[in-house]
Specification:
The chain is of the alpha/beta class and 349 residues long. It has a domain at 16-196 and 228-258 and 290-312: Rossmann fold, CATH 3.40.50. Helices cover 41% and strands 17% of the residues. The chain has 13 helices and 12 strands. A 7-stranded parallel beta sheet has the order 3-2-1-4-5-6-10, with helices on both faces. Strands 7-9-11 form a 3-stranded mixed beta sheet. Helix 2 links the parallel strand 2 (41-47) and strand 3 (67-71). The longest helix has 20 residues, at 107-126. The chain is globular. The protein starts with 14 loop residues before the first strand and ends with a helix. It binds nicotinamide-adenine-dinucleotide (NAD) and 2'deoxy-thymidine-5'-diphospho-alpha-D-glucose (DAU). Nicotinamide-adenine-dinucleotide is lined by residues 20-21, 23-27, 47-50, 52-53, 73-75, 93-97, 112, 116, 135, 137, 166, 189, 191-192, 198. 2'deoxy-thymidine-5'-diphospho-alpha-D-glucose (DAU) binds at residues 97-99, 137-139, 190-191, 201-202, 205, 217-219, 224, 226, 261, 285, 292.
């Protein structure tokens, strides 16, 4: 690890940014976006490479002279202090992110999502970081009835151990702003989809199962509603927040695209030329949130950001990506993954 203020090409970067969780789904897509949009920024990409972290998500990025990868844990003060040398901006994606796993056991969720955020906040404050973006989730608001939208002032009412751990981290961020005027900004985004998403989440799980002519497990009646946003749109929102967001603020991010799970599943079935007999209705997720829908008018109005990727097009592009990259997900769907699948769904695949 080098605390140097220079790039590998020996020029001074415009900004140095620490991206935690950089080998995960959204973090890796964000690194790809930064390399395109900010060629003069130096990226310190930190990730402890849990089951969800995958260096294959960053393959072409790691060769770039502006990227420095550190295998490290955000709960380790020494590691993060070293990674923060001369850093201007932190974006904290590192987390345990899967609701079902948090229901099976939430120790790792409290450790990374709460303690890890606290360790990172303390180290970033000591390093005089100018902007700290905490990547949170719309799940901290809990579940909506059939009407209405989450706004930034909706009460926090998390229902899963995962969302409770994310809400705890949000409140720590709020406290660090109020107490120390530390320039934290929290984003709360809806459900992302796109390339490099670990195949435990609905879209990559269903697409890869169907490609292999396997069944897809729909929880309960399948009428739960989620607001889907392409990961690239989420990443452009984060960049807008870095550049134009106000410290201490919260910004909701969404796709203006809420729809029932079954509607989405039928779109995937149709594109892959499969029938509804591929659906297997399975026991519902305990505490399953019925509906999420995000009002993102604040970020649209104040930061002039809006989602750009049409859902039907983004979804087919995403399905094509999984069809074209079987080696990426076939390497994941082995070993520990199969044990998880058996534990979660009670069947082997
Ligand atoms: P992911 O599970 O794909 O990636 C998480 C990454 O964090 C992995 O690479 C993992 O190795 C790393 N990590 C875990 N614990 C770590 C630790 N202690 N130290 C360092 N690295 C660690 O998750 P994702 O879907 O990319 O989500 C990223 C962030 O965005 C999370 O904070 C999540 O809560 C939030 N979020 C996700 C979505 C979504 O739909 N996926 C929506 C809104 C918000
Ligand atoms: O809303 C943002 C959140 O979106 C993020 O904070 C989380 O990190 C991310 O995992 C996601 O949470 P969800 O629980 O909404 O995503 P998931 O893909 O697990 O499930 C989407 C919906 O599909 C949800 O209603 C549960 C349902 N589902 C999921 C799986 C894995 C099924 O019906 N069957 C399944 O096998």
């Amino acid at each position: 690890m080098s605390p140097s203020t220079k790039n590998k090409n020996n020029t001074k970067p415009e900004k140095r940014i620490l991206v935690t969780g950089a080998a995960g789904f959204i973090g890796s897509n964000f690194v790809h976006l930064l390399l395109n949009e900010k060629p003069n920024w130096h990226i310190v990409a930190l990730d402890s490479l849990t089951y969800a972290g995958n260096l294959a998500n960053l393959t072409d990025c790691l060769e770039n002279q502006n990227v420095e990868f550190i295998k490290g844990d955000i709960c380790d003060p020494q590691t993060v202090t070293q990674a923060l040398a001369n850093v201007d901006i932190v974006v904290n994606f590192a987390a345990e992110s899967h609701v079902d796993r948090s229901i099976l056991g939430c120790q790792d969720f409290i450790r990374t999502n709460v303690t890890g955020t606290q360790v990172l906040l303390d180290a970033a404050r000591a390093a005089n970081v100018k902007r700290f973006i905490q990547i949170s989730t719309d799940e901290v608001y809990g579940s909506l009835g059939p009407e209405g939208y989450f706004t930034e002032t909706s009460p926090l009412a998390p229902n899963s151990p995962y969302s409770a751990s994310k809400a705890a981290a949000d409140l720590l961020c709020r406290a660090y702003f109020k107490t120390y005027q530390f320039p934290v900004i929290v984003t709360r985004c809806s459900n992302n989809y796109g390339p490099y998403q670990f195949p435990e989440k609905l879209i990559p799980l269903f697409v890869t199962n169907l490609i292999e002519n396997k069944k897809v497990p729909v929880y309960g009646d399948g009428l739960q509603v989620r607001d889907w946003i392409h990961v690239n749109d989420h990443c452009t929102a984060i960049l807008a927040v870095i550049e134009k967001g106000a410290p201490g603020e919260i910004y909701n991010v969404g796709g203006n695209n809420d729809r029932p799970n079954l509607e989405l599943v039928k779109m995937i079935l149709e594109y892959l030329d499969k029938s509804e007999s591929s659906i297997e209705y399975v026991t519902d997720r305990p505490g399953h949130d019925r509906r999420y829908a995000v009002d993102c008018s604040k970020i649209e109005r104040e930061l002039r950001w809006e989602p750009n990727i049409d859902f039907a097009e983004g979804l087919t592009r995403t399905i094509d990506w999984y069809k074209e990259n079987p080696q990426w997900w076939q390497q994941i769907k082995t070993g520990q993954y199969l044990k998880y699948y058996q534990q979660q769904y009670g069947v082997t695949i």
